[in-house]
Amino acid sequence: MHASPACGITSNVSFRTDRGAAMTDPTDPYLIISAACHAGLPTERYRPYLEAGHHRAFDDFLGRRDARRAEAARYGARHHTSALKWYEDNEEGLRGGWDAGRRVKELDGDGVAAEVVFPDAGTADGGTAPPFGAGLDPAAGADPETAVAGARAYNRWLAEFCATDPERHCGVALLPAGAETDAVVAEVHRARESGLGALLIPAGWDDAAPYHDRRYDPVWAAAAETAMPVLTCAGAGPRPEHGGHLGIQLSEAAWWPARPLWFLLWSGVFERHPGLRFGVVGAGCWWLPDLLWHMDRLYLGHGGRTGSPYAALKRSPHEYLDRQVFVCATAPSRHELARRYEIGVDNILWGSGFPHPEGTWPHTREWLRRAFHDIPVGETRRMLGESAAEAFGFDKRKLTRVACRIGPTPDDLGQPRNQAPVEASWRRARETGRHWLTGFDFPFVGMGE
Amino acid sequence: MHASPACGITSNVSFRTDRGAAMTDPTDPYLIISAACHAGLPTERYRPYLEAGHHRAFDDFLGRRDARRAEAARYGARHHTSALKWYEDNEEGLRGGWDAGRRVKELDGDGVAAEVVFPDAGTADGGTAPPFGAGLDPAAGADPETAVAGARAYNRWLAEFCATDPERHCGVALLPAGAETDAVVAEVHRARESGLGALLIPAGWDDAAPYHDRRYDPVWAAAAETAMPVLTCAGAGPRPEHGGHLGIQLSEAAWWPARPLWFLLWSGVFERHPGLRFGVVGAGCWWLPDLLWHMDRLYLGHGGRTGSPYAALKRSPHEYLDRQVFVCATAPSRHELARRYEIGVDNILWGSGFPHPEGTWPHTREWLRRAFHDIPVGETRRMLGESAAEAFGFDKRKLTRVACRIGPTPDDLGQPRNQAPVEASWRRARETGRHWLTGFDFPFVGMGE
Predict the structure, then answer these.
(1) Interface check B84 vs A, CB under 8 A
(2) Where does the Amidohydrolase-related domain lie (chains A, B) (predicted)?
(3) Which residues pair with B350 in a beta bridge?
């Protein structure tokens, strides 16, 4: 089923400069990087990673866990019958949430050469939250200083965890961005020096300043300087407002982590920090095409006119998006993949979501076949790994050895050896692309016949 | 240019029961209802409509207006050079914001037979806000009792205003829904008895309970009983968070008024109150197709299974949408009109936005021609008036006389006399429709040549 170790994937390293020539050899395995995986210790085991001065607060935090778990259970997401069965059936592999040895076996089984590691191993009982919510969960109620201490503890453990196989794990440091700026900037550099590769900020700023505020400029500058993408992740949101209605929570689950995108964009953060990269994680990408259309329309409607209210930007929103923004989409739907020419093929980074139940594990190979069988191989390579390698700085040359051992091939994904009809089937969609820029004011679908 | 008074439009009254037979006689004028217009007195003139006990508070409110105007000016929306020129050029017609005689002339000029009237006449200086923000503008800082008093004052004036030509004006009462329930329910009935036809609730609940709360059930019941649609409107949003960045405000301007939709839906309000109708106003409808897809997917993913977390619903989200929800779209874009088969043709109610600068006035006839020339006549009739007549209870028989006098015809809109090619051009889009329900997992655009 897998290609030989002498597989031709190494020629793929220069793909970026050779975009036109899609790698379509059906025996070249995919170099797959999951841009959205999760890991975390059972909460109580963070104690040794926490500075001693915070141990008493940590004991209090553990004591309040039961109430939070009961609250989480009201939502039912992890507790209806079929979900519980999933956890039982996969108990062994779920230990890969914090056991590095087990984890690599699961990645191999999925054909995933490397991964970006976010917090919350997602156990059925919600028992792997970082200390004090680590600034991501306002409901945890920690003061800023305590939140930073909790983040440091998680980050220390994560650096150890990723160091077991640094080529395959890119750890995402928790960064309570709303805390005191100097401490936040220091944690960016400390995290980078410890081997971590990206930064997760809270999607909401709670009582801190919104992300358009200039007080964050040193944080964005440090992120750009260290080449650590800044990320927001689905999952928080104002739960008390949702009244226990899972449908309400999930209807707006993508919106809260997406919101910082337009706060950064319109306040000129991407203009002032061209080296900053920003990603939205675990929220799919279905909300992005129309948002991008809407924002471009606002900007272009004032293009070049004096007195534009968008003077902080020198480019259209889509230009900043293509230069600096991406989505890490866990198990993206076929509908979302079909809209990749609007979103930007290079802006979609696939994720398995391991070990979360909403992800593709432990059936990733079958999932990939179902999702990608009729998508061009060259685009599949971008979304499954190439773009993530660039965004997070993976060493593709080293990973190629892993990919040659475990990576599924286009054949394995059911992609036809003759790609010409596949390419042709997407011609209209590709030509339409971002319809507001290509002259297709009405989508192509309404134009022909 | 216009059809004779003996025009055939009356046969259109039974359109609802005769959906298949589109009225395509090119000399039948359109019965156009703008589902989103605005009116309001210059603020200081509400004093006589306000109960005496609130006069002192009103004087304080007026005193604080300058600060609010300065804040509004920071956003630039109404104050950049081209906008100011627009206000100057249209000064005469803008008096139609509160002068009923002038208003009817402007409606006639636009070919609009009837209208749904929302607050805020939208003058350049923002000087037509209802007293105390009337519960719609949390920044106005009124306590709930004062907010209700302000709403009553506006509603009294509006009832007088609409009574000048009740067939053509459907007034939307302000309803600070978060105030004491008995007072809110009383205001629903008082508003209905005074001749008003719909209810505008704040898009955000501020310190009150979110709209999933059972405390609102008597309000929804009263709205259903009086056949007054409940509406939310773009415009509020948490401005202090936006830091004066217009792009941030407008990027999420549709989201805040849309948010109550999923709070009502998932908490079972539409299930418990099948007679309730809910509309989102002035926020376009570009955000709706993917939201609907997302919500249907959540629900259908648990369809019929035991332990579904969506047990409050007996139907799919799209079924509630088609039964009870609509959008009043001011000057919808061509892109939004092209997605009408996903949204539901019958769920889109066109609005001119008169007298707001983002609307189509005073060039509505030209605007309609540009927007609708290649859309089928039958669907155009639904979106331009039929659906609004049903949602708001307009008397189509009486309005037909007005429409025969002023309404543009399909010829005027540049719609071909032979509609067959127009219908054919939309066949693929119509067949794809809600792609998640029609089996087009990938949009049609990617499937064929």
Answers:
(1) no
(2) 134-394
(3) B329
Over its C-alpha atoms, chain B yields an Rg (Å, rounded) of 22
> Apex CA A55: angle with CA A53 and CA A60, to 5°?
130
A73 reaches B (C-beta below 8 A)? no
Residue B30 reports pLDDT greater than 80: yes
Residues contacting residue A366 through CB under 8 Å, at least 6 positions apart: none
Q: Of B25, B1, B35, nearest to B386 (Cα)?
A: B35
* pLDDT over 90 (residue B128): no
CB atoms within 10 A of CB B420: 10
What pLDDT shows up at residue A394?
A: 98
**pLDDT for position B27:** 80
CA distance B428 to A403: 41
The full set of domain ranges for chain A reads 24-440
Chain A positions in Cβ-Cβ contact with residue B234 (cut-off 8 Å): none
B362-379 pLDDT, tens digit each: 999 999 999 999 999 999
Q: Which of A248, A287, A445 sits opposite B444 (nearest CB)?
A: A445
Q: Taking CB atoms and an 8 Å limit, are B308 and A80 in contact across chains? A: yes
Query: Mean pLDDT, to the nearest integer, of A383-403?
Result: 97
Is the CB of residue B352 less than 8 Å from the CB of residue B331?
Answer: yes
**Is the ipTM above a cut-off of 0.90?**
yes
Which of B68, B238, B173, B138 is closest to B60 using CA atoms?
Answer: B68
A56 in contact with B, Cβ within 8 Å? no
Q: What is the pLDDT of residues A289-343, one digit of tens each?
A: 999 999 999 999 876 556 788 989 999 999 999 999 999 999 999 999 999 999 9
B293 contacts in chain A (CB < 8 Å): 286, 335
Tell me which architecture the domain covering A24-440 has in CATH.
Alpha-Beta Barrel (3.20)
Structure tokens at A78: 């992890």
Please give the distance of CA A113 from its chain centroid, rounded to a whole number: 16
B281 DSSP β-pair partners: B233, B328
CA distance A107 to A114: 8
Query: Is the pLDDT reported for residue A445 higher than 80?
Result: no
Q: How many CA atoms lie within 13 A of A354 on its CB side?
A: 34
Secondary structure percentages of chain A, helix, strand, coil, to 5: 55, 10, 40
C-alpha distance from residue B178 to each of B145, B213, B382 (Å)? 10, 11, 34
**Short-list A165, A164, A136, A131, CA closest to A149:** A131
Cα–Cα distance measured from residue B277 to residue B172, given in angstroms and rounded to the nearest whole number: 14
Q: Count of CB contacts below 8 A, A vs B?
A: 182
Contacts of B243 in chain A (CB under 8 A): 210, 212-213, 267
Q: Chain-centre distance of CA A323, in angstroms?
A: 17
Q: What confidence tens digit (pLDDT) does each residue in B375-395 have?
A: 999 999 999 999 999 999 999
Taking the Cβ of residue A86 and every Cβ of chain B, the question of whether any pair is shorter than 8 Å is answered with no
CATH code of B23-41+87-128+157-440, in short, is 3.20.20.140
- What percentage of residues in chain B have a pLDDT greater than 90? 72
DSSP state of A10: G
Chain A: nearest CA to B266, how far in angstroms?
5
Report the residue count for chain A.
449
Residue in B with minimal Cα distance to A285: B290
- For residue B3, name the pLDDT band (cuts at 50, 70, 90): very low
Sign of CA dihedral B3, B7, B10, B12: negative
Cβ distance B248 to A307 less than 8 Å, yes or no, reads no
